[in-house]
Amino acid sequence: MVEITDVVCSLCGCVCDDIVVEVEDNKVTKVKKGACAVGKSKLMGHGRIEEPAIRENGNLKDCSYDEAIKKAAEILAASRRPLLYGWSSTVCEADKVGVELAEEIGAVIDNTASVCHGPSVLAIQDVGLPSCTLGEVKNRADLIIYWGANPAAAHANHMKRYSYISKGYWTEEGKKNKKLVVVDVRRTPTAKMADVFLQIEQGKDYLVFSALRALLYGYDDVVPEEVGGISKKDLLETVKMMKEAKFGIIFFGMGVTHTRGRHNNIVNAIETTRAAHTHTKFSIMPMRGHYNVAGINQVCTWETGFPFAVDLSRGYAWYNPGEISATDLLIRRECDAALIIASDPGAHFPGESIRHLSKIPVIQIDPFPNPTTEFADVVIPAAISGVEAEGNVYRMDNIPIRLRKLVDTEYLADEEIMKSILEEVRAIKEKEGE
Amino acid sequence: MAEGELLIRNGVVYDPINGVKGEKKDICIRDGKVVEEVKNPKVIDAEGRVVMPGGVDIHSHIAGAKVNAGRLFRPEDGRKGVKARTKVCRSESGYSVPNTFATGYRYARMGYTFVMEAAMPPLAARHTHEEMVDIPILDNAALPLIDNNWMTMEYVKSGDMDLLAAYIAWMMKATKGYGVKVVNPGGTEAWAWAKNCDLNDEVPYFDVTPAEIVKNLAVANEKFEMPHSIHVHGNMLGHPGNYEVTTSTYDLVKGIKPYRDRPAMHATHTQFHAYGGTRWGDFESKAGAIADYINKNEHVSIDLGSIILGDTTTMTADGPMEYSLYQITGRKWTNHDVELETGSGITPFLYSGKSPVNTIQWAIGQELALLVKDPWKLALTTDHPNAGPFIGYPIIISMLMSKRRRDESAEDMHKVIFDRAEYSSIDREYDLNEIAIITRGMAAKTLGLHEHGKGHLGVGADGDVAVYDMSPEETDAGKIQKAFLNTKYTIKGGEVVVKDGEVVATPAGKTYFVTPECDDKLTDEMLVKLKDKFEHYYSVNFNNYPVQDAYVPNPYEIKAPWRS
Amino acid sequence: MEELIEGEEKMQTIRLKIKEEVTNGAAKIPVEVDSLTPDKLAGKTEAEIKAVKVWWGNKEENTGDLFDVSVEGEAGSAEEVKIVLEGDLSRVKRIGDGMKAGEIEALGDVDMHCGAMMSGGKITVKGNADCWAGREMHGGELVIEGDAGDNLCAMYRGEMTGMTGGKVVVGGNAGECIAQNMAGGEIVIKGNVDILTGLNMKGGKITIEGDAVMPGADMTGGEITVKGKVLDMMPSFRLEGTESIESEEYKKYTGDLAMTEKKAKGVLYVK
Amino acid sequence: MIKMGTKVNLISGRTIVQGQNLDNKLSEAYFNEVATCELNESDMEKLGVAADGHVKVKTNYGEVVVKAKEKAGTPEGVIFIPMGPWANALVSGDTHGAGMPSFKGIDAEIEPTEEEVLQVKALMKTYME
């Protein structure tokens, strides 16, 4: 038995890096410290895609890595509008090869941000993002607002490590001298912990943000007695807390990005932060979901100039979420082949888009079988990043951390698989005399 | 590095570090290095053309967290510079915030082969390195920010210079960094509470002043044989009337004995620090006062931070300054405070020749170059992309070389240029030797890179050469500008990477970093304090903090022994 | 070339009918026709037009391979060119993208970016137009007889300014965030609009004959008139009183105060 | 579509067990967590469904059968289905020019049913028809 310390969790955007595990017979046998229930489940492992496979007459048939990679390359090289989607539950090293492949075959490359915090990115492009690292929150924040976010379920260590319950330099006493405000449609487990819970009417976030801004700027006279299910009295109370804080932070989740208004809700949340910043220090941060969704946004940006939804069909980048994003392409039946890596549109895309995906050739690269496997035509098993493979990832506050390799594996890492596909595609193109 | 031999024949060579001022000369390269002679070389005919060592940029923001945040939040800038991939090149995008590939190609097209990334937040150092590795062709290095760090301020307060040096050494190694960067010392920490600091203000909660931070970092830096001095972006950047803060900052290192023949401080993007007046309404150039100081003293070197007119993306670890800028423009604004270390702000900005303030800024950048007598004391920069994108360098070169060009430009600008700046009264014109100094020689020497083969063409130097498609007699400013934008040839490590302005090869560059050598006992003592910081205040574990070797696949290590 | 009698107008009509095989596959891959504007085709013969490249997915194809092309008359300049697009145009993107003069008529529903960045001439869409029609429009006229999608006349991502000039009329409804960052020009929507019309607008005029949801958010200038109902009125506008427009009473609001009083120079008329 | 049931507002989102089984979606644990629909007590009563009773949820975009679960803190007229294949059978793919489907705030109708809840593989099969 070996104990490994400083293990980095490859599950959610918290990327906790103080985990201790025990490894025996090349398997993680115990998670001793640091991980939440969700992270622990990830580290302990689940059933795998065992062999590479190619679908024949409706059934997946096992094959070698070489055969699967060759088949994948053939599909991609022949495609007029290929989609390369996923990238957030793998490491940046693999993402880089993905962008290179997208350029090589004139593909659209998109990542799971488009169905998660893509709207946040769009908002940042309109107004910017006054933010900070999570350690700043831990050391300084005395007002924490979770808006449309339920960390108790989705980012279980977030409050403990970084925000409400954590202890830092100016926050030695933990939650004792902090205030927690939760804004949500449901009284979630997070909401139950709050000093103030604002139960907002579904879909009215935009209006409430605008009301808060008007109040923060002092126009109490125009704001009506109730906005989005919240009384003016409660809004005024919240504004008072914001103004009186020494360091405030808004964490927002998919409760805001998924709902009516989408990115403009976030624009408004950021504008609210700016308005609060005229009184005191105020920051805002998206609760990024997958452990490296921030990372693929980073890689895609430094390589193409744009964070997601990038069309390279003309050999240069055209960026336009809403047109180039995966859901739109699928619902509009635009693409004629897809490579899905480290993500599961089968489970997380609207049914309408899965319908098209199930009709075109699909290549899946993933350690685990999932709904996407059900219609994938080529299935390539991969090593689990953070357990069987190392590499760089970006936490939700864009801090880069290197995932550790804990055990050996026979499975190829995503980066190796992607490199092989790229090589194979180049060989095909060379043969075709391009 | 390319194997084999290359001969660059009959060029007119400007190699200021070796005292070569426009001599017709052959350059011989074997296996990537300059040699005395070659036997069976590939020949490049440079007949009558200007030949210089590969350019060295002392200060540019090309890689890392805030550069990428700039790209990410400016798709409207991204779409300005798109260019399709070719058989050799990846696709390009961006104007003021180009993607990694465009960054490498565009610098190489201008004849540059080394660029210093000027600000690396230590906690995000991996990010800087990931991008630097992705920038083709260029050799590069990065300066970690060490000045607003709690560790630094605590040692400054306690006066433990050796422990501060031990911290610098550890940080240099942990970040694979090149030298100590200072940005708005104390002010960025204050910004975490939405405040700022002037040079002699107390930093909230830390009981030290920015002046003390600067001085002590300079002292601690010189405890090692560091190739570079501390690299300082002082307090009150961009504020009218800041020139006195600037010269007071320079004064702080007077009397500190540098390890070798370089100043004890490099003061960067000086244009932003040479402001007179009391507010924007009576804003005026104080380039003359700054130049006077530089002319009379040897302990400070500067780079220009010269303005390029047009839209750009400003970005700096100076969070409060970016906030002020955003308040002026009302445009989008990103801020990113980094725990225990630093911060950053980003906002787009349009420099317009119709604006009196921007006009004076334009004048100041060039006035500095024209009024500082010794070009070895200054380097050409635009603090890319803060004062404008680096692809504007040829504009500044043509201005410095042509009084006529400057007069023409002044006519197109706001009339304040005639009464609140010295611009139109200066007759000096740079010659090509001086241009070679401010675009390669000075930077290489100030960074200590000339001892590692950069910035010159002496035997043993790297085979990095720029051949410009112009004769040394050229006086047409337009033609000069064009020649400096796209080389006839750029050669990197003996390999032709640019031919006729097109990138033809994209070898990977090297990452230069400095390893200060520090006594174990000192280090251990320092680590007690540092580990406590990690245990209680950082959000990343100590063992996951240092940049792993995997991030620097092409390393070039420079050891910096402790000075006895 | 034959000399023209003064005053006689030359006119060229270019008919482009998309071939069925382009649109009837399992995947409906868009064809991008930014190279087929009157400006770019003026003076070209039928054979030359057939050879103009258009992007279809990741490959460039000849116009003649994707469209049946016929040309009547001749033209010396773009003003004299009329392009008629026919067939299933629902996956034809960038119709009239960047056009400066001349006329385009699209006989059916069109895909995204129709009339994007146009600065002159006229586009008539006989059906619906998908998102980003009239994006960053500077001048000219865009008539959409059916519905318009989201982001009609908006800016490109990250840009400060959307539409700056020209006129747009939509016969049916329009989608979300139309006229975002609008700085000039005029838009008339005969039907209803979805959320956030005129978001962050700074200038220009929008008339909504039907209903609107949260119109005028973050506006700092310009004018929006909603003749139908306003659902979810922004809570950060100030009611200034009533005004009569075309002999009907309207409430006049100014805003958006969420942008601060100094900037809140937008005017919103609501019946 | 003829609408029969009670009108509700559908939202989807994460849960902790859903997260634990993110890499384990073909499992019983995932099915038991995700193929469910949370309602408040009074809505449960109104519909006349007991805990674990089956309900059919319909929207303009599809319909699906899931198990009902009572959950305090859910507002009246709102139903919550954990993010996953069952919720996604119901949501709109219209991204309104933003790339993001409408995962929350969908008009839906809900009614008790005797029909079985489809396992994930069977559910995916329906897209291949």
Question: What is this entry, summarized?
Answer:
With 434 residues, chain A is an alpha/beta fold.
- Assembly category: heterotetramer
Could you report the average pLDDT of chain C, rounded to the nearest whole number? 96
Mean pLDDT figure of chain B? 97
Uncertain regions spanning at least 5 consecutive residues of chain B: none
Low-confidence stretches of chain C: none
Q: Care to count the β-strands of chain C?
A: 19
User: What is the share of helical residues of chain C?
Assistant: under 10%
One letter per element, helices H and strands E, the order of chain C comes to EHEHHEEHEEEEEEEEEEEEEEE
Largest interface, C-beta closer than 8 angstroms, per-chain residues: A-B, 63 and 61 residues
Corresponding CATH superfamily of chain B: Metal-dependent hydrolases
Distance between the termini of chain C: 58 Å
Helix % of chain B is 25-40%
Shape of chain B: globular
Beta-strand content bin of chain B: 15-25%
Tell the overall outline of chain C. elongated
Structural category of chain C is: mainly beta
**Strand residue content of chain C:** 25-35%
Task: Explain what the structure shows.
The complex is a heterotetramer of chains A (434), B (564), C (271) and D (129). Helix content of chain A is 36%, strand content 22%. Chain A has 434 residues and is an alpha/beta fold. Chain B is α/β, with parallel strands linked by helices and 564 residues long. Chain B has one domain: TIM Barrel (Alpha-Beta Barrel). In chain B, the strands form 6 sheets. In chain B, strands 1, 2, 3, 4, 5, 19, 20, 21 and 22 form a 9-stranded mixed β-sheet that branches. Chain B is globular, with a radius of gyration of 22 Å. Chain C has helices spanning 20-23, 38-41, 46-51, 63-66; strands at residues 12-18, 31-32, 53-56, 59-62, 67-73, 81-86, 92-93, 103-106, 122-125, 141-144, 167-170, 186-189, 205-208, 212-213, 223-226, 230-231, 238-245, 248-255, 266-270. Chain C contains 4 helices and 19 strands. In chain C, the strands form 3 sheets. In chain C, strands 5-1-6-8-9-10-11-12-13-15-19-18-17 form a 13-stranded mixed β-sheet. In chain C, strands 4-3-2-7 form a 4-stranded mixed β-sheet. A two-stranded parallel ribbon of chain C has the order 14-16. Chain C has 2 domains: 10-103, no CATH class; 128-271. Helices cover 7% and strands 31% of the residues of chain C. Classes of the chains: A alpha/beta (434), B alpha/beta (564), C mainly beta (271), D alpha/beta (129). Chains in contact: A-B, A-C, A-D, B-C, C-D. At the A-B interface, helix 3, helix 4, strand 8, helix 5 and helix 13 of A face helix 1, helix 4 and strand 16 of B.
